[in-house]
Amino acid sequence: MALQTLPTAREQLRKGGVLFGVFCKTTAPEFVEIIGRAGFDFCILDMEHGPIQLETLQNLIRAAECSGLLPIVRTRDSLAEGLSQPLDLGAGGIQVPQIASEAEAQTVVDAVKFAPFGHRGVCRFVRAASYSAMNRSDYFAAANEALVILQLEGTALDEYEKVADVPGVDILFIGPYDLSQALGVPGEIEHPKVLEEMQKIIAVAKRKGKTIGVFADSPTQAQRWIEAGVQYIAYSVDVGLFYNICHEAVTCLKKLVYDCNACLQGADSL
Question: Which residues, in sequence order, are CB contacts of 115 under 8 Å at separation 6+?
């Protein structure tokens, strides 16, 4: 179960290590398993911008677990039901989009933690508790260790200071694309205005002792944020990585044909 891999992830972060993951929009367990076999630390199973449904989600979580990958679920929203259901299926954490206030952060924590830290609906006959085979006290304690990751996608720095103070929030994640839109330069995540705002949010997280996460789409971007102290890096998206590999392969193969034809034409002219 993913709950068993959480202590390792938490320990890595505590020691200053960097965790690398991939956003997953696929509904194919094989892709998720491959990501784990490749050596990534976590995957973000994307219910916000992907077609994943609950029945599919549980098999993706299984695929992550069997390959040593920590399954994080990006929820569609911050409604209590949508937060607790992925955790019931065994997610090692949830990543909640569009958090802009202290009140929203408190609502999320309350919905995903069992008492005394919150009011998550109690049921131990769920996959995360091995369908009741797990000792109930052990399950409730382990479940409260699931990572709570909040996406900050605007410019409300004063409110983010308060969000960072909410007990139970583990990681503040910067969504650069939504942030770019908030800054009037949609999609331009390398724009100076976007980079400057991201540095400000990172400074807030550091000041409050919170782990910070970002999305990176290239090694250059990843290096920048590692140097800035980011410890949770979502590196690109599964479908994008697959497209890039396919495109590179086709380009290479077509070049081989072109070079071969050019060589033959040269020989014919002799």
Answer: none
Residue 119, phi then psi, degrees to nearest 5: -130, 40
Residue 267, in any domain of the structure: no
Residue among 211, 230, 216 nearest 171 (CA)? 211
H/E element holding 59?
A: helix 54-66
CATH of the domain at 59: 3.20.20.60
Residue 81 lies in a domain: yes
State yes or no: cis peptide before 116, omega within 30 of 0. Answer: yes
Token pair listed for 225: 């944020």
Provide the whole-model pTM. Answer: 0.93
How would you write 159-187 as a 3-class SS string?
HHHHHCCCCCCCEEEECHHHHHHHCCCCC
Continuous H helices in 127-237: 136-143, 157-163, 176-182, 192-208, 219-227
How would you classify residue 33: left for phi > 0, otherwise alpha for psi between -120 and 50, otherwise beta? alpha
Phi, psi of 236, deg, nearest 5 = 60, -160
Whether residue 41 lies inside any domain: the answer is yes
pLDDT tens-digit series, residues 157-180: 999 999 999 999 999 999 999 999
